[in-house]
Specification:
17 strands, about 575 residues, about 45% helix, Beta Polymerase, domain 3, alpha/beta, 4 domains, seven-stranded parallel sheet, single chain, Beta Polymerase, domain 2, DNA polymerase, domain 1
Length: about 575
């Protein structure tokens, strides 16, 4: 994403949050700035080109007033409206509004009645028992706030896999251009595909004589804000983007495999590796495998060489968590895990019909230009999701025709009709079955009552013959909302019995199902889909993160439904409907 677009979008989101905090008649301003922020975030070119062409108002959500703010920001790097609003609100508290246990009304009350300005003030007030004395802040409410603060702190200390990959790959691209670099790669938790990342680790193999030049290039990167440490073979910098630490390690090519295993982790995996080496009379470290008796180096130049010498199959980084990978690797039984190239289509996305930024034709054109998919499924929100532009029966009738028109224009049946239908509190769906029966794909999701046990709601949806898949099944938002209580054993059992798929939603703040639940699902015989839940062009790139999650769960290509052709997916839908009809 263009850096100016990212910074501007962030500013507009902050204005939206400040208006939301102020409440009252500012609600529509909050919605307007939120929509404009999403529009800028979704641009596929630099926002300055819109200013030069006098087309700022062509950006979704941008009208006269907001276009003036954008003009001002491009020219000065500031927005007066943003500066003025900051004087009216407790700015440091605003990012808590999306965290479970908080909201604009609660934050206003805390600010007005206790003078709380910062998150530190808030923690102190809770610890001193001041918050408990406020009207509406009972024991359970304060408990939820503390849980929300803990979630938020964990998220604050880390960034999403997607953001970390974006930063890491940009730096990799710059350093790869140096002829002195023999090998270069990301390591650490990024390479293992963890859903959130602390520091970003980079490993480079080079000749000793070239270390100084590579170190100088790394510590002199344009996006560097501070050099934290610089030595002969190690350096750390802080980059401006998300204030993140990036660590570099230089090694000889003969040490590459050992160093890459060591720097990839996990810690627990590496401890077990050292234990296994010790049992064989060897010593293993970041330089290689050595015989304890004569100190002879036995291996170290490649990872495969290291694992093979130990008597194990090479272990994919995503599985290196010291779980069951050693048992499988000892039997050379680790299967070929799903790869990004296996994905044949994206099963959930939103058009401007609900809360997306592009029309169906724009989505299709963009995806065909940038991806090799055989199909995409438009799954706009159903009527209950008014805040997300939920569509009713008449709206979907029009969309069916729109999809036919787009496919005719494309000359092939590329766009499939789908819906993300709401699972209501009683487990029923908010669209009638006669409409659901006409969709190519029905994804049913929960968007309310997040604190209740939702086992029966999900099971009820699975038992509907027209529901193909359960979307973002656990409902968690990383750093904002915990997963709601669910008996996954029961849910997966019913999903397998009814032929209902479960989604791995690749949105960075969801990554839902996570790897543990996804692993349980495939062991129960449940098919999974990996979807980006895209609302704007950049979101389609999230697919890679969803694949990482599936790989961490040990998923093979066959476990993921959208690695198959559309004919196979049609057969999956048909089999579910036939199965439930026969049972009835």
């Amino acid at each position: 994403m263009f850096e100016l677009n990212r910074a501007l979008s962030r500013k507009l989101y902050e204005i939206s949050a400040m208006y939301r905090y102020l409440g009252g008649g500012n609600r529509f301003r909050a919605l307007a700035y939120g929509k404009a922020a999403k529009g800028v975030e979704g641009l596929t070119e630099d926002v300055r080109s819109y200013l030069k062409s006098h087309l700022l108002e062509d950006i979704p959500g941008v009208g006269d007033s907001i276009s003036e703010d954008i003009d001002e920001y491009i020219r000065t790097g500031k927005i007066k409206r943003h500066t003025d609003l900051r004087k009216e609100v407790p700015y440091e508290l605003l990012e808590l509004m999306h965290v479970s246990g908080f909201g604009p009304q609660s934050l206003r009350q805390l600010h007005q009645e206790l003078g709380i300005q910062t998150q530190t003030d808030l923690v102190q007030a809770i610890e001193l028992g001041k918050v408990d004395l406020l009207k509406g802040f009972g024991e359970k409410k304060v408990e939820n706030m503390l849980r929300g603060l803990k979630l938020f702190k964990v998220a604050k200390d880390r960034i999403s896999l997607f953001d970390a990959m974006s930063i890491g790959e940009r730096i990799l691209a710059e350093l790869k251009s140096l002829r002195e670099v023999r090998q270069i790669a990301l390591a650490g938790s990024i390479r293992r595909g963890k859903e959130t990342i602390g520091d970003i680790d980079i490993l480079i193999a080079c000749l000793p004589k070239d270390r100084k030049k590579i170190m100088a290039a790394f510590t002199g990167l344009d996006e560097k804000e501070t050099v934290l440490m610089k030595g002969e073979t190690k350096a750390s910098i802080l980059v401006q983007d998300l204030n993140r630490q990036v660590d570099l390690r230089l090694v000889d090519e003969s040490e590459w495999g050992a160093a890459w295993i060591y720097s990839t982790g996990s810690k627990e995996h590496n401890v077990q590796l050292r234990t296994l080496a010790k049992e064989r009379g060897w010593k293993i470290n970041e330089y290689g495998i050595f015989d304890v008796k004569d100190h002879q180096k036995l291996a170290g130049s490649t990872e495969t060489e290291m694992y093979t010498l130990m008597g194990y199959q090479w272990i994919p980084p995503e599985l290196r968590e010291n779980k069951n990978e050693w048992e499988l690797a000892s039997q050379y039984a680790i299967p070929r895990l799903i790869d990004w190239k296996d994905i044949k289509g994206d099963m959930q996305m939103h058009s401007s019909g609900s809360d997306g930024t592009m029309s169906i034709e724009e989505i299709a054109t963009y995806v065909l230009k940038n991806y090799t998919y055989e199909y995409i499924v438009i799954t706009d929100h159903s009527v209950s999701q008014r805040i997300a532009g939920g569509m009713d029966v008449k709206d979907f009738e029009k969309q069916f025709e729109e999809i036919k028109s787009v496919n005719k224009k494309l000359g092939k049946s590329f766009v499939k009709s789908g819906v993300e239908v709401d699972i209501l509190s009683d487990g029923t769906l908010d669209l009638p079955d006669d409409l659901l029966s006409r969709f190519d794909w029905v994804c049913a999701s929960i968007h309310s009552d997040f604190k209740h046990d939702n086992t029966q709601r999900i099971i009820a949806a699975c038992k509907n013959e027209f529901v193909c898949c359960i979307g973002h099944p656990s409902g968690r938002l990383i750093g904002k909302r915990e997963a709601y209580p669910v008996d996954w054993k029961k849910v997966f059992q019913v999903a397998a019995q009814t032929g209902t798929a479960m989604e791995i939603n690749a949105q960075p703040d969801r990554m839902d199902l996570n790897d543990e639940w996804a692993r349980q699902a495939i062991h129960a015989g449940v098919k999974l889909t990996i979807s980006t839940d895209s609302h704007q062009p950049q979101h389609f790139a999230y697919m890679q993160q969803g694949v990482y999650m599936a790989r961490r769960a040990g998923c093979k290509k066959e476990d993921i439904l959208n690695t198959a052709s559309w004919n196979a997916i049609e057969d999956f839908v048909f089999q579910k409907r036939r199965l439930l009809i026969e049972k009835i």
